[in-house]
Sequence to fold (523 residues):
Amino acid sequence: MINNAIRRIKIFDTTLRDGEQSPGCSMNLQEKLEVARRLELLKADIIEAGFPISSPGDMESVKAIAGIIKDSTVAGLCRCLEKDIDAGREALVHAVNPRIHVFLATSPIHMKYKLKMTPDQVVEQAAASVKYARKFCSDVEFSAEDASRSDPDFLCRVFAEAIAAGAGTVNIPDTVGYAMPDEFGALVRYVREHTPGIEKAAISVHVHNDLGLAVANSLAAVAAGADQLECTVNGIGERAGNASLEEIVMAMRVRRDYWHTDTQVDSSQIYTVSRLVSQVTGVKVQPNKAIVGDNAFAHEAGIHQHGVLENRETYEIMTPESIGIPKNRMILGKHSGRHAFDEHLKELGFGLDAKTRDDVFAQFKILADKKKAVDDRDIEALVMGVSATAPETWQLNRWVVNCGSTLSSTSTIRLRHKDSSYHEQVSVGDGPIDAAFKAIDYIIGKEPVLETYKLNAVTDGEDAQGETIVKIKWQERYWNGRGVSTDVVESSIKAYLAAINAMEWELSAGTGKPEAVLQTESR
Ligand code: KIV
Ligand code: ZN
Fold:
């Protein structure tokens, strides 16, 4: 309870698990660590850091996140299998507040076709797994996958056994985004009223957005007595995504009068965490997205602008500052000094170490020479290009491409290896970027598959920077890379090298703990 009238709802963020597992949203270790730090600053109650048994990368990142997060609970997802729970236990061993999150499907279709188990076997396995997990961890959550398509009485039976075995939270997922708000609220109420022992556990919901109802369903669950909401930043997640953290939080904050609930989230962190997730995944936020879209606080129509100038509340139900959009977007140029630049980095929430600040400032000066006005989006892109990236095994020294409609594209690439040796290669390709990537492949002695290539303008205008996001695949593993430059060939080369450096770093034996250079500060 926040006070007598307002009930506190816990926020369980699964951006790094359900969000990250969706196509095109993968993040490298440095990026996951940075997102986790931001979520802790935002005061998410629980951060689901990954699915430890699913890959060595997930195991490593859950371990690393568990090692740095102190205030939020860190959860690891496990199937109801001992080997999964053992992996979860290993990954969370250094967490201050660990949570093992086990799940098993309870709907007829999942039990019959996916699990090939009878309902009795499901009950038994759920209870046994919770019991096993409780041997290592006092905080265990049990999720009944596809709960919204399960028989409500069976759901209550599974939950009752899970609670008796020691689950402190039972989660009702709308795994396929099928439920309607009234129906979902009724299911939560039914579970609350018909599950023996439910008073010993928190009720959680986890909702997908296939019919665009994830937030509505989450709020309906709150009205029916749910204690915890599972969600992701920008709503990223499997298929149409998960319930969006920022929408859930702000709906309850702005309409506390209606819901009589709130969260402990520091809403002034919302904007930066949203930008960060968009930057590191390369998944743009749609301009009209509620709360964090570029147009969410833009007033185009003259009559609206007039109203807002007279009194903001005519057309604004919340302020941009309440989600952390800086009041005055600062435009910096080539005459901006170091002090103003450092101050502005702090205002944007980037608490960088001295070396990273120097590197970002050097990049800023180069950019300011090419671009008249450098705005916050440019600076964020520069920061993300310099930090939250893996150490450079390969550094771009220089490049040349020749291309045109009457000749084959050729490139000459010169890279510097971390052992200080220089390597140069000429290559022909199907276009300048292909030629450049082929030359790099030759130098590094590997041919990763280019799974995704995206090119966007960071800002508007003729002199806008190009931001390239690539995803590469090598031996069934994926890495992202991002590059920014006013030249699109250069941004592409930088992005490809960033992905290669992430790959080399993770593949190199005994990488040890990452030396994260990016640290966040509260504003
Ligand atoms: O959607 C789902 O059912 C899940 C569970 C693992 C909680 O993600
Ligand atoms: Zn899910």
User: Anything to note?
Assistant: Residues 509-523 have pLDDT under 50 and may be disordered.
